[in-house]
Batch of 2 targets.
Target 1
Amino acid sequence: MEPRELLWADVGVHRRRLEKSALALIALGRALADQRSLTPGIDGFLKLLDEVSGAQPPHFTRVWSDPVAYFWVRRAVHLIAGCRGEPLGTVERAYCAEVGARSPAAALQLHLEEFKRFALAIAVVSGGEIVFAEPYVAALPLAIPGTDVVITGGERATIAGAHGSDIELIAPRRTLGIESAAHEGVRAERCPAVSVGDNRVFLNPARFRLPGIGFPIDWTGLPLDFQLRYRSTAVAAFDAIRRFQPPTFAHMEEALHTIALRPNDGTFFNITTSELPGSFVCTVPSDPYALAGAFIHEFHHNTLFAIEEAGPFLEPGERDEVEGENHYSPWVETLRPLHGILHAVYVFLPVFQFWCSVIDERPLDEGRLAHAKEQVARIPAQLRIGVNQLRRHACFTRVGSMLFDEMAKSVAEAEEAARVMGATLQAAVIGVSPSGALRPIRMNGRTLTVAEAMLDHLTKTDVHGECGEERADLERQIA
Amino acid sequence: MKGQPIHLKKLAEEHSAEIDRMTEAMRREDGGTLWTAEMPAVTRGGKCMVISAEDEPDSPI
């Protein structure tokens, strides 16, 4: 496959990732069947695995397409390696700390217990029955994989099993009806969803409530009303993507599963993790077009992570290219790993195309037009710094080199497109107000320009002086 | 996700060599080679510049 097709057109990349996680589930069952003494609970897990594997293909596919399925099987694989003496990765170390496991074997035991959520989900989507030999003590809120159902309303629920949409609880014993309208105590709620073409995308923060996930999760306990309140903004954002960035919309229609909207609490803004394919988190309130830009950005992280399943892009070096925050990035306030900079270059290319298309819309709201002009001016300049940083510091694998060269070509095309459109770094910087409105940022009594903002960022953040050439260029533009 | 539903038995037949490789990887000391433990990554999107609430007194927030 040509690099350009692999980067931008290959919708099958998401399906291959799903199939890999299904193959890993089969292999996991076989490996654990031979190693039953590794940790307690393997017999019970294998029994449940039989139930899940025996589900009708449409039911299995629906449940196993859930982002959490990938998270679950990948953690299981790494924890088994940990049981055999391999060093634990970042996520597994955090996982052990958060669940209070003192060894990989103890963590694996707890993790195998969590497979019950998938057996429960199969019962819910198939209308079948599952009775757990030992009850499932689930931390709440619990998103039932592959569905819009969230069990909420307390710290924990002790689940004996399910019969279709009836979930059996114990202590106290009662039946939790998914269709009931209970508003208090432990209960089942349904998260909102939005249509992306033929695809139904869930707005479900509980999906992200996982130990070791790598970012704060307190916000995932917010009432689902919060998602409902901003659902219309999300709908308008997807509509903008459909109109102005159809290639991304086609990928989203194929592979986007769950998003979550969260308030800006100062901890982080928007986030995608490699461990939850088909999902991301974005902050609201936001202007729908700005949110569309964020959706495109976050979704393409998903796509690049899926492409990376075939092998790493960066050769291992003395400094940690994936997690070591060592290099200046024009997009964030801290130093970033080279891997993160490569991702940023990739995801901002379709965001640039989106804003170019938006500018052609007439009539366009004044705030949006100003924001679009800022983005069309700013993104190519940031992309150039990103490409320069990677050229200076990255050691690519063969595949990584091929894909980076293609991205660098696209960056040069973006620079040329911006020039033809008359974009300059004298464009005004547009900020987002607390209510999501787009307004120019004023500083010292006048409007801040992109060149000034970029130079200020470089001055404050390029602590190792990696971008002297780019800094001098910005200073020339301001003088 | 679009596409044909995954039939696990068929998938296992079609990819038996890959499953054997994965199973063997999980049985060995270096069972983590199926996925490189160092590869998980979180990407944090850059924050938009936020106008303070004082600049927008009528804001509902």
Target 2
Amino acid sequence: MKRLDDLWPQVVAFENLWLAWRKARRGKSRAASVVAFELDLEANLLALRRELETGDYQPGVYRLFTIYERKPRRIAAAPFRDRVVHHAVMNVIEPPLDRRFIHDSYACRRGKGVHAAVDRYQGWARRYRYALKLDVQQYFPSIDHTILKTTLRRYLRDERVLALLEQIIDGTPDVSVHLPPLNDL
Amino acid sequence: MDEKLDQGTPRAVQACHELLAWLIPLLDQFPRSRRFTLGERLETGWLAVLEALVEAAYSRDKRAALTRANLRLAVNRHLWRLALELKVINLKRYEHGAKLIDDLGRQIGGWLRSRDAAP
């Protein structure tokens, strides 16, 4: 497969940043950080664009918290302006990258998800006598950053996009949850 | 021409002037239902910015006038965004306007911070 190149101009195009802002605010339009960003929307988008162009862009600090739905999860929430940047990159790289995924990958993909995965599993379960039930503990937090970066490099050629992605990956806080072993309780 | 204006026609005045020269013909293309409401507000709003800036250029204490210009500019920026959201202008036009507005805003900010405007 040809490695994708010349993506950077698409990433920093004003139109793309505008679209990224629209996506980032979805469902959050009343959050204080979103409202603050929008008070000065044009200036903020243009400043973001300038910083990305000059390489001065620095991601902010993640807000860490834990939710206890079903099981404890550490959540790292990026500041709003960083989420706009995340969407700006994803707008450009997601469609071509998603096509390289195997069909039966169901996490964090458009049109996929738990329900689609269960449907698929049930279809297979009816056909076969055995099923391997397996869970990768802490899958997303445990992805090796170096491997991830190398893998991205196999698909992307655009150095500026890669640099931005690496900056984002390096800035990701560790959200793995260390469950106490049972005998500790 | 007045010497005072000649030697240092602050760039903000010029930028605002150019903005208006670009904007007003566009406003005339607004549909009637918007030309006399939103369009009118934009026109008066930008004229007010221009007035405040010219006033600042000629007055000793520039702070008050520049602050007023800044405030009107912020209002106009929101009206401009509204024009996009109401689909009176398209994204390309909005982008161009937003850039002009941003440049102007930064020039006014710079002027405010300069020694020229110190109280």
